[in-house]
From TrEMBL:
The keyword Membrane does not apply. GO terms for molecular function: ATP binding; ATP hydrolysis activity. It comes from Paenibacillus radicis. InterPro entries: AAA+_ATPase, ABC_transporter-like_ATP-bd, ABC_transporter-like_CS, P-loop_NTPase. This is ABC transporter ATP-binding protein. It comes from the Bacteria. The keyword Nucleotide-binding applies. Keywords: ATP-binding, Nucleotide-binding. Residues 11-238 form the ABC transporter domain. PROSITE patterns: ABC_TRANSPORTER_1, ABC_TRANSPORTER_2. Gene3D superfamilies: P-loop containing nucleotide triphosphate hydrolases (3.40.50.300).
């Protein structure tokens, strides 16, 4: 693909293989995600979702194949400022307050002064943590830590947002408002890749990638996946594909 063509794509993965101790965990993955798309990765526990998004963010390196993000070959240190990543386990400093955590990560992304304060206020409001910013993070509940991690991933207004199970432990009301924000960001052109086990969240994605045993078995809109699998819902489609070992072309 030409440079001009590839820049329309936020993510281009081809021929990816990743193994751990000789065991193949991702096998021949090819995937292109256009800019501004809200893309969901779905798959059973241990199927390779986190491994794939770690390759996309440049945290891990594939054994073979190519990963391009925002038109550049990964891993690429310079791209980190353009990517927001929320890992499955929270990487927070427990002895610092919520605000200090936000300030620390904000400074890492080059934010300072009024701009840093404005962004801290905006993301704290988004995840409903304004009243808790002065508390030590070690005293936060699991859901509050998730919300703070999400706020950190949004601080520097990244062009690509990669979220590993972002709404686990978050109550339904806040989950709704987070989804409103994800949709708004997507409309503004931010590309979002998230993993989820929640089927009604999968339904909200522009397209889904279904992973099973390290292989991408279907990539399509939620409606098309349901239609092609001959089932009534994404959940049924997912179960049918897992059970039958089927692949949707
Ligand atoms: N650093 C590692 N060393 C060895 N094995 C690993 C490593 N990271 C992942 N694996 C293995 O790779 C496989 C895929 O793991 P991965 O975390 O990508 O799954 P997942 O689909 O994200 O699962 P979950 O939904 O439970 O988070 C698993 O069998 C896991 O044990």
């Amino acid at each position: 693909m030409s440079e001009a063509g590839s820049s329309l794509m936020a993510v281009e993965v081809s021929g990816i293989q990743r193994q751990f101790s000789g065991r193949i965990v991702l096998n021949d993955i090819a995937l292109s995600i256009p800019r501004g798309e809200l893309f969901g990765l779905l798959g059973p526990s241990g199927s390779g979702k986190t491994t794939l998004i770690k390759l996309i963010t440049g945290i891990d390196r594939a054994d073979s194949g190519s990963v391009r993000v925002l038109g550049q070959q990964m891993p690429q240190l310079a791209l980190l400022a353009r990517i927001g990543y929320m890992a499955q386990s929270d990487a927070l400093y427990n002895e610092l307050t919520g605000r200090q955590n936000l300030a620390f990560f904000g400074a890492m992304y080059g934010l300072k002064g009024q701009r840093l304060n404005d962004r801290i206020r905006a993301v704290a409001e988004l995840v409903d943590l304004e009243a808790d910013l002065s508390k030590q993070t070690g005293a936060y509940s699991g859901g509050m830590k998730r919300r703070l991690s999400l706020a950190i991933s949004l601080l520097h207004e990244p062009e690509l947002l990669v979220l590993d199970e972002p709404t686990v432990g978050i109550d339904p009301l806040l989950r709704q408002s987070i989804w409103r924000e994800l949709n708004a960001l997507s409309r503004q052109g931010v590309t979002i890749i998230l993993t989820t086990h929640v089927m009604d969240e999968a339904d909200k994605c522009d397209r889904l990638g279904l992973i099973r045993s390290g292989q991408l078995i279907a990539v399509d809109t939620p409606e098309a996946i349901v239609r092609k699998s001959g089932t009534a819902t994404i959940e049924d489609a997912f179960i049918a594909l897992g059970r039958e070992g089927g692949v949707l072309a």
